[in-house]
Design brief:
Elements (H helix, E strand, L loop, with lengths): L12 H10 L1 E4 L1 H5 L6 H13 L4 E2 L2 H42 L2 H4 L6 H24 L8 H9 L11 H16 L18 E4 L2 E4 L3 H16 L3 E5 L8 E6 L1 E7 L1 H10 L4 E5 L1 H12 L5 H40 L4 E4 L7 E5 L2 E9 L6 H18 L4 E8 L2 H8 L13 E9 L6 E11 L1
Parallel strand pairs: 1-2, 1-5, 5-8, 11-12, 12-13
Antiparallel strand pairs: 3-4, 6-7, 9-10, 10-11, 13-14
């Protein structure tokens, strides 16, 4: 029975050891991109591990493409942390001074004198920001040479899969992926949210790709490589933790057991691969320590774990906000259907809904406002994007629908100064409230609260 259902069986320690001696090791794009998120010493150790098995590594073309496309974005995100930390420090010092000043201690208390303490705080904050400036100069930058990519160029030389032959090859893969997704066949069907991004499709070197199907393209390229090279053992290292890659079982808490059995079965049937193992970066380093004696420190493994967990939390928060955004648009759509005869969603555009009233086309852009103090920037961005659409699509009226959790936030926004936007053509703003479920992203009790023109 084991031979027919090998995806449901684990390996013995001796089998693991043997597989690790000669397996081809394939890295996912997220593993390569996380090299920019670790502490420098952790990155160096992981690169050393990759170098120790450099004769056995290979990556699909699509992994390399995703790495190149997202590299600068990840570097920029990491650099933004320096500014964020400096702003937090400055605001903290300013807030502390303001709070103490409000007590008017010089006139109202005979012994409390906070000035010396505040001077010391100012000095410490200034010194810390200088240290951050120095670290920022030494950090990866979109404007500087990239030592990580240089090292990967060296290690992956002649170890990247072939580019797709033509657009037809990718179109066929994406068509297969669509059928698989409808049937919940792994991998990749949990990436449906990628269709709701501003860039659901991208083009490189004359070939267009739908981001939604990236995981399946990577998987197909791994299988094609296995068929062509007749390899028997593959280790795939990915920091994608979704259930369309991993078998997860709830026993008290959710536990990751193995790769999805369907994946193990498929690669075995479609190629001559006998053993397919899958690891997160953390798991890969732990096993590399045990089976290859590469000497990765406990601190480095902990750093890898922390970064991956942090990324998972960020993705969950991002997914939650996407769900809230999508569900808010649906609530606005239902409200508009009661007001207008013709109402349609606009997919992959800078506006969300278009309604027609007495032959006049009205575009609606829906934005969930989490922080009212940032609303002017949000309105300016939304107007800029939506006006571009309006100018190209014969739109007579533009309405920004700003949705928030309570009426107090609406009142705060109603009293804000939008004078910085006076150069724009008149735009109507509808303020509305709704209840947001912070677990599921469900949106209920949508109510328009106020409207005005800017």
């Amino acid at each position: 029975m084991k031979n027919k259902f090998k995806g449901f069986y684990s390996h013995s320690n001796s089998e693991f050891s043997e597989i690790w001696k000669n397996a081809v090791i394939v890295f996912d794009a997220n593993v390569l991109l996380n090299l920019y998120r670790y502490q420098v010493s952790t990155t160096e150790q992981l690169l050393n591990v990759i170098e120790s098995v450099k004769d056995r590594i290979w990556i699909p073309y699509h992994v390399a493409l995703e790495y190149q496309r997202n590299r600068l974005k990840v570097i920029a995100e990491q650099n933004e942390k320096f500014s964020e930390v400096k702003n937090i420090v400055s605001k903290g010092v300013s807030s502390l001074r303001k709070e103490l000043d409000s007590l008017n201690l010089k006139k109202r208390h005979s012994t409390i004198e906070p000035e010396k303490f505040l001077i010391e705080i100012d000095s410490a904050a200034t010194q810390f920001k200088k240290e951050l400036d120095l670290l920022e100069k030494q950090h990866y930058s979109v404007m500087n040479d990239d030592p990580v990519r240089s090292k990967l160029d060296e290690l992956l030389n002649n170890r990247v899969g072939s580019k797709p032959a033509n657009q037809d090859e990718i179109d066929k893969l994406e068509k297969k992926a669509s059928v698989r997704f409808d049937k919940k066949i792994p991998p990749g069907y949990m990436d449906s949210n990628k269709n709701n991004t501003n860039i659901p499709v991208f083009t490189y070197d004359g070939i267009s790709y739908q981001r939604l199907y990236s995981d399946y393209i990577v998987w197909s390229q791994i299988i094609d490589y296995a068929k062509k090279t007749d390899i028997k053992n593959i280790i795939f290292v990915t920091d994608d933790s979704k259930e369309d890659w991993w078998l997860k079982i709830k026993q008290n808490s959710l536990k990751t057991i193995s790769p999805r059995p369907e994946l193990v079965s498929e690669i075995s049937i479609r190629s001559n691969v006998d053993n397919f193992l899958m690891y997160s970066s953390e798991g890969f380093l732990k096993y590399a320590n045990d089976l290859l004696s590469v000497g990765v420190s406990d601190d480095a493994i902990e750093d890898v774990r922390d970064v991956v967990l942090s990324r998972q939390e960020e993705r969950l928060n991002a997914q939650l906000m996407r769900n809230i955004g999508i569900n808010t648009e649906k609530e606005v759509y239902k409200w508009l259907k009661r007001k207008y005869d013709e109402v349609d969603f606009v997919l992959h555009s800078s506006v969300d809904i278009v309604a027609v009233h007495e032959n006049i086309k009205i575009a609606f852009d829906v934005t969930v406002i989490r922080e009212p103090r940032h609303v002017v920037e949000s309105v300016k961005y939304s107007m800029n994007e939506a006006l571009n659409y309006a100018n190209k699509n014969d739109i007579s009226e533009l309405v920004l629908v700003l949705v928030m959790a309570n009426e107090n936030a609406c009142d705060d926004i109603r009293g804000m100064d939008f004078s910085s936007l006076i150069d724009w053509i008149p735009v109507k703003i509808i303020l509305a409230t709704a209840k947001f479920d912070k677990e599921t992203g469900a949106v209920t009790e949508f109510h328009p609260y106020d409207k005005f023109e800017i």
